[in-house]
Amino acid sequence: MERYVLQYESKNLIALSTAIQDWLTSRIAIELMKEGAMLTVLSSLVAALAWPATLLTTFDIIDSKWAVAVDRSDKAGKVLAEVLLKGLQGNRPVTLVGFSLGARVIFKCLQCLADSKGDNAGLVERVVILGAPIPIKDENWEAARKVVAGRFVNAYSTDDWTLGITYRASLLSQGLAGIQPVDLPGIQNIDLTHVIEGHSSYLWMTREILEQLELDNYYAAFRSEHENPQQEKSTSN
């Protein structure tokens, strides 16, 4: 199996990462973490008025960099769709795996494939998005799902407050795939709250997560309850 990595807008992504890390090490962030205020915000997905005023005033430096990174990610998704449509991958079905904004690139790619003319069925075999900054409402998840021939996995953590504070409360009220399940037939939701300690945990746990998902199984066994990868693996043995 050939593997390719999509690298895009490294400068902007590094700038965003640096801004978030600076915020996380700031005095106000440390105090809020001690008080458990972050988890309170995420657990209820509250509207903007419920966020502490002192917390909101510290977001400005992140907001501008986040907006740029999201815009570049959406554009990268369109380019990825064009590459797949041209068959530059050798006219073979692909499996797309993305973390954080990389997951957004994939989702935008799927949307573009769905909007393109012609029969694109079979271009994308499987999709795994991890900690995805993608709203659940006002996004055409159904169209994105239709262009994926096999499994479409949304892995999330309800305690990923780094993603929550970055994406902001006004959009959290719409729901966010990276911190909760997507209620749509054909989307396999995997709750990783028990293994993901923070947003960056996906980076060093990607291989383990993919192994537990057993992607070689072409069709997913969808169940009524959201399961974690270990439970799914045990059930299939």
Automatic annotation (TrEMBL):
It is a multi-pass membrane protein. The keyword DNA damage does not apply. It is found in: Membrane. InterPro entries: AB_hydrolase_fold, DUF726. GO terms for molecular function: hydrolase activity. GO terms for cellular component: membrane. Keywords: Hydrolase, Membrane, Transmembrane, Transmembrane helix. Belongs to the TMCO4 family. This is Putative alpha/Beta hydrolase. It comes from Lupinus albus (White lupine).
